[in-house]
Amino acid sequence: MNRTSLKFLLTFLLLVPAQALVFNHLVLFGTAVPLVFIYLIIILPVTLGTNLSVAAGFLTGLCVDIFSDTPGVNALSCTILAFARKPIFHLYVSMDDDLAGRMPSLRAMGHAEYFKYISTMVFLYCVLVFSIEAFQFFIFRLLVLRTVTSAIYTILLIYAIDSLTISRREKKL
User: Cβ(70)–Cβ(13) under 8 Å?
Assistant: First the structure.
């Protein structure tokens, strides 16, 4: 098992139970829920194949669904997010500046590109999960409010988590 797989497994074992036991209960103002477990999909190596990343996304979402009692909402949203991960990454980092198997991180991408990357990923996930969960657009204002507040809350927490896990050996592109 290589270092990347080990880091992903440890992060999975830490974030999925933390999401179900802690983060699901840190609701701000009845609307903002931190969805920090999607950090697992965000940090998948760029060179990882689409099939493996989609499988990892589905399993991550399924585990959160099992612990959170949300029937398939997170599994579907995580699968779509994992599929869209590589094209979203290449919106902000050119194909020539590929990370060569490393995980996308604050240190590897720089502050501006990394912030744009996680913001896009988190907003996409929040739109997916809250649209699927509501399965209607009758209360559009509440849907937008939950999406925006949860996305901002999640972005701040993911940025903080990634700031804590910066390795000194990683080089900026």
Answer: no
